[in-house]
Amino acid sequence: MIKLSDFSSFFVANWKLNGNFQFIDQFINNLSLPKDHSKCVVICPTSIHLDYMSKNKNGFYVGAQNVSEHEEGAYTGEISVNSLLDLNINFCITGHSERRQIYKEKDNEINLKSDILIRNSVIPIICIGETLQQKEKGITNIVLQEQLMNSIPISSSFENTIIAYEPVWAIGTGLTPTIEEIDETHQFIREHNDKLNKYKILYGGSVKASNAREITDLPNVDGALIGGASLKSEEFTRIIED
Ligand code: PGA
Fold it and tell me: Which of 86, 199, 212, 229 would you label with 10, given CA atoms 20 to 30 Å apart?
């Protein structure tokens, strides 16, 4: 398993349902990785492209966007953790708000998916975050508390799990919380219980070259999960650069 404590920060590109072979070739060609090896760069392409990405990776890690909570069996269309191991995949996003909202994934499923990953030495990047409605109702911390309590498996520790705070209303919208709000929420997550104190906690939601540095320099932020801006190699390079 990757030793998370070897890295000071994590930059995770979530390509969602985008990209093809030509795109990947061009992206890798144009990408410049940071000289600072304490920055860990992870790219999460579609599951169909994991193999190609893994074979062509050069200085970055490859992550999946989803995994089945089942080891194997009659689960048409699912991706098993063993398939990820076959392809040398080190990370996997779980609980992304698009999985929660569009595919109705619940905390208990996210918990099982994260657990099967941990048991197979793949690092889950467990996403939590409030919707706009929940933010407006002033219940952000209650929502996060519930997600943290129910989606993080007992097998999880700071050595095998990453948390990503992604306010749902900030994803793909160009909106972000203020810098103070991000820091406060990350501190809230960190202090939620003793166990979370040492976790790596990433921020996600409309991270781009123009705001990445300010966000990732915050004391309670250990990196970023990047969607739209990670599809442009030049912009992604600017986000991860030294
Ligand atoms: P965004 O997406 O950077 O396009 O807002 C982030 C994510 O969905 O993880």
Answer: 86
